[in-house]
Amino acid sequence: MGLHGDHDDYGLPKVDVVVPDDARELDRDVIAYRREQRQRRRRERWQRIGRPFTRYGIAAPFIASAVLVALISGVLMTVISPRPGPRTIQVPPTGPQRLRPGDVGGGLPAGNVIYRHKSVPVTELINVAGVVLVVPRECGCDAVVQGIIRQAGGQRLQVWLIADDRADKDDGDVARLADGAAPGTALLADDPGRVLSSTYKASGLTAVLVRTDRIVRKILRGLQTGRDLTADLRPLQTPS
User: Fold this and answer.
1) Taking residues 210-227, what's their average pLDDT?
2) Beta strands in the chain (DSSP E)
3) Where are the transmembrane segments (predicted)?
4) Could you give the domains of the chain?
5) What pTM value is reported for the model?
């Protein structure tokens, strides 16, 4: 094919067309043509792949490098950085807590009372299970006290009548309550030093229920006539 032929009737370019006698003479031209097509397709493919990167021009490699460095730095910091130690949880102590003397679950308060005109430690006088009745002045609770004494006797429990803030010569009202009970059921003691009454802040008739191990199980204040203490008295014979 050449460009030096005569003009045709349709104004087409001047070309010389040579038709070989043997088509095999065109094999090299076909191979060259196919090679050019493959190269063209290869260039187009790489252009499509690199188009997102070439969009930003020369800055694209720097951006990609910065992202890569950031990723590597993050991974290294995660691996190398020290791990926090295990969190310590504050657990409240499970052991026995120290209770104040006189509190429920604790022992009786330390101090002396007057029993049969002698000073006796509280823990020596109150040495079995029973009910300690702290009787304030002008209590007017004779019927209540008698009812508690009867209920305690039915459970074979001892009763102590504590005359609050009084001496021997001034405890006649409480002594009469003890005299009205069965012998040995109610014992009278005076508390001039207010050992028991100050501990239990007696307001009205106060009953302190004590177990066989001399541990306070319950404190009942302001007792009234007709109060049934059977359910409260029954467990006192059990040490715990």
Assistant:
1) 89
2) 112-115, 118-121, 130-135, 158-164, 186-191, 206-210, 216-220
3) 53-80
4) 23-79 (no CATH), 112-237 (3.40.30.10)
5) 0.56
